[in-house]
Amino acid sequence: MLTLLLIVIAVVGLLIIMRREAGAASALALLGVLGLVGLLFDANFIGFVLLLGAIAVAVTGLPAFRRQWLTPRIFNIFKKVAPKVSATERTALEAGSVSWDGELFSGKPQWGKLLNYKDEGLTEDEQAFLDNQCAKAAGMCNAWDIAQERADLPQQLWDHLKKEGFFGMIIPKEYGGLGFSAKAQSMVLQKLSANETLMVTVGVPNSLGPGELLLKYGTQEQKDHYLPRLADGREIPCFGLTGPRAGSDATSLPDTGVVCKQTIDGEEVLGVRLNFEKRWITLAPIATVVGLAFRLFDPEKLLSSEEDRGITLALIPRDTQGMDIGRRHHPIGSPFMNGPIKGVNVFVPLDTIIGGQDMIGQGWRMLVECLSIGRCITLPSGATGTARYALGWSGGFTRVRRQFNVPVAEMEGVQEPLARMASLAYISQATVYQTANLIDHGEKPAVPSAILKSQLTEFQRVLLGDAMDVHGGKAVTLGPRNYLGIGYSANPVAITVEGANIMTRNLMIFGQGAIRCHPYVLDELAAKDANDIEAFDKAFFSHAGLIFGNAARAFTMGLGFGKESVPFDAPAAAYAQDITRLSAAFGLCADAAMASLGSALKKREMLSARLGDVLSNLYLASMVIKQWQTNEKVEGEDALLHYSCRFLLHRAEQAFVEIFDNLPNRALGKVLNAVVMPTGRRWDKPHDDLARDIAKRVSTHSALRTKLLYNTWDTDDGEQPNPLARYNALLVDYDRAEVIYRTVNKAYAKGELPQTALHPEARVEAAFEKGLISEEETVFMREFEKRVLEMLTVDDFAYDAFATNKDTLIDHNARTAAPIHQPIERVE
């Protein structure tokens, strides 16, 4: 009995010590005391075992002992197996900052830190800009007109964008810009996502480009000259980074600049001779100034003793001799300005280098530091805005589209994608807003930028597919009335640019995060590079304590014991507690993967991707519950919270299962499975009752629908018709119409109306004649059905409308000179 008691006390005590990361001294004291108790009370075997355990802890865990024999051996092994970090990788790792992503990597996230990022909301100027200038811009757009008729935005829209400072959102007011917060920039791009070409046109100059680079690194002279001109649209910028042989691997630039001298107007000028070929450059066809990334060489050593000076950035006027610019690419689904830029022997003076000579060779660092913010905002905001519009359109359409005498929104086959769309829009909106709030507090979230870019654009892909499905023929028939089809076809652009999603998911999220966000890995690598064994000892054994701590936390919380206290109200508290549990499990699995695979983990991209999936889903879920906690709730929002959190945590657990099943060390996979999921998986997919409730609310005039569509373009007073505003107006009237539908359809089913009254309009008129509905109801339904039919109608065109070369047109119905089949003459 005493033996069993000592075992139980030892196991429970060690788990508590491990959870608290209390250190070797605490474990030594526990095992030593229990061992002595065993020897004193005749439990000799267990007492002896416990004392042996205490000795093992002492020689391996106490610094005075381990540094004599253990640390040097581990250090030598670590130097052999640790991944080599290239200079470009180190630059990427050092870019940006670590905030909530680091807490999730720690396995013991401190929720108070996340909640301490207070949200001050938008300023009056920012909200007014959304309500007025943004609404006007959106109201000038028709997707068909822009994509098929013009292949451009209307001139009056370009003038409006320049006049109102859309291209200067990130530029401070002292330079003539708007000086908007990150949250305001995100909300502007979400509103402009009513048209994808408009969103891209405004988003790119405010993301990775000359404006941000000049703000952070430009000389004062460059700022004074360019920033006011960029802010008011006198200059249209583009940035040339990618090319035929440098896409995702942007560091392998084949474009060169050579330091040289050239005589200009009789004066010898020191500068750079450039040769480059860029493509996929947004705004290039109309740009007046080109930001350019290239590899700088100084063979004559005119600037320094180094010949290869590294990646450098310059700002080049459009009319510079030798630069070929103006041709266009044809991006799928959307005609936003995009094209190639070439240059042969283009000479520019040294003062075109962004930041001057001091920033020579710093181009890669400059780019990744800017990208850590820009990638958090532009494409994620565009994806979020698209999600909200697609949800609004789909909810409205499925409510007014009737089949089998009921709205299709009442059919469960439609309710399932509607609920999924609502959830993805809700998650996206919370994530992009709360991450922008981190930026407004001074963070530069490098790893979250990769999470947002890849995850939210993938959500957009799923959501647009769902929207196409529920619209059916309405969305697959292109024309001025089709508000969805062109945006659907343009979705691959967001998937591909600013770091293709395949690369971002498989290489960047965990590959960068494992080193950048981990509490100790970066210190261990630094100690290795410095050959500092004392620093390594401190980092490594702190790391070991974290591993034991995460194992204990994941296991005990998996059993339902020791749930952490979290500063959330119900129902978010339960999700926060499980994010904490899965964070500990993630930290444990990340360390297990790195320890078991070492540098080979770089090549195990599928495994790295699944680890990244866990981190991504935990980050998204954290942003959702933070938004829930800090914002005012509306009726029905709790269902959306439950659906969204269950969806994300189910995906996180699925990624864990796939990690366990695919670790090369099968025994390690089974052990991790037992520790992380001792009672099995906890989260199912969201239940059908949640889907039904959410679908009903987003397809009717409800508080939840109103909240999800807040700050979208929802007024019908623009130059172009607004389908969202029209659906919203129909939903306001829908309850009244539904009562009349039921009366009329019931009468028809009973034979009280003529069987020839097949159209809704005919049944309404017949019901009025029979006295089943009043004249007021009849007038209302005439107008209501007219508005419904307008939203259901698709476009048709002249037979030859789509042939750009009319000479190739085949007239399939032309009459021939003689019948194809001649009548057979009878022979008498």
From TrEMBL:
<keyword id="KW-0812">Transmembrane</keyword>
<dbReference type="GO" id="GO:0050660">
    <property type="term" value="F:flavin adenine dinucleotide binding"/>
</dbReference>
<feature type="domain" description="Acyl-CoA dehydrogenase/oxidase C-terminal">
    <location>
        <begin position="361"/>
        <end position="501"/>
    </location>
</feature>
<keyword id="KW-1133">Transmembrane helix</keyword>
<dbReference type="GO" id="GO:0070991">
    <property type="term" value="F:medium-chain fatty acyl-CoA dehydrogenase activity"/>
</dbReference>
<keyword id="KW-0274">FAD</keyword>
<comment type="similarity">
    <text>Belongs to the acyl-CoA dehydrogenase family.</text>
</comment>
<dbReference type="InterPro" id="IPR036250">
    <property type="entry name" value="AcylCo_DH-like_C"/>
</dbReference>
<feature type="transmembrane region" description="Helical">
    <location>
        <begin position="45"/>
        <end position="65"/>
    </location>
</feature>
<dbReference type="InterPro" id="IPR050741">
    <property type="entry name" value="Acyl-CoA_dehydrogenase"/>
</dbReference>
<feature type="domain" description="Acyl-CoA oxidase/dehydrogenase middle">
    <location>
        <begin position="238"/>
        <end position="335"/>
    </location>
</feature>
<dbReference type="Pfam" id="PF00441">
    <property type="entry name" value="Acyl-CoA_dh_1"/>
</dbReference>
<keyword id="KW-0285">Flavoprotein</keyword>
<feature type="domain" description="Acyl-CoA dehydrogenase C-terminal bacterial-type">
    <location>
        <begin position="515"/>
        <end position="797"/>
    </location>
</feature>
<dbReference type="InterPro" id="IPR037069">
    <property type="entry name" value="AcylCoA_DH/ox_N_sf"/>
</dbReference>
<dbReference type="Pfam" id="PF02771">
    <property type="entry name" value="Acyl-CoA_dh_N"/>
</dbReference>
<dbReference type="InterPro" id="IPR006091">
    <property type="entry name" value="Acyl-CoA_Oxase/DH_mid-dom"/>
</dbReference>
<dbReference type="Pfam" id="PF09317">
    <property type="entry name" value="ACDH_C"/>
</dbReference>
<comment type="pathway">
    <text>Lipid metabolism; fatty acid beta-oxidation.</text>
</comment>
<dbReference type="InterPro" id="IPR015396">
    <property type="entry name" value="FadE_C"/>
</dbReference>
<dbReference type="InterPro" id="IPR046373">
    <property type="entry name" value="Acyl-CoA_Oxase/DH_mid-dom_sf"/>
</dbReference>
<dbReference type="GO" id="GO:0004466">
    <property type="term" value="F:long-chain fatty acyl-CoA dehydrogenase activity"/>
</dbReference>
<protein>
    <recommendedName>
        <fullName>Acyl-coenzyme A dehydrogenase</fullName>
        <ecNumber>1.3.8.7</ecNumber>
        <ecNumber>1.3.8.8</ecNumber>
    </recommendedName>
</protein>
<dbReference type="InterPro" id="IPR009075">
    <property type="entry name" value="AcylCo_DH/oxidase_C"/>
</dbReference>
<dbReference type="Pfam" id="PF02770">
    <property type="entry name" value="Acyl-CoA_dh_M"/>
</dbReference>
<feature type="domain" description="Acyl-CoA dehydrogenase/oxidase N-terminal">
    <location>
        <begin position="128"/>
        <end position="233"/>
    </location>
</feature>
<keyword id="KW-0560">Oxidoreductase</keyword>
<dbReference type="InterPro" id="IPR013786">
    <property type="entry name" value="AcylCoA_DH/ox_N"/>
</dbReference>
<keyword id="KW-0472">Membrane</keyword>
<dbReference type="InterPro" id="IPR009100">
    <property type="entry name" value="AcylCoA_DH/oxidase_NM_dom_sf"/>
</dbReference>
<dbReference type="GO" id="GO:0033539">
    <property type="term" value="P:fatty acid beta-oxidation using acyl-CoA dehydrogenase"/>
</dbReference>
<dbReference type="GO" id="GO:0005737">
    <property type="term" value="C:cytoplasm"/>
</dbReference>
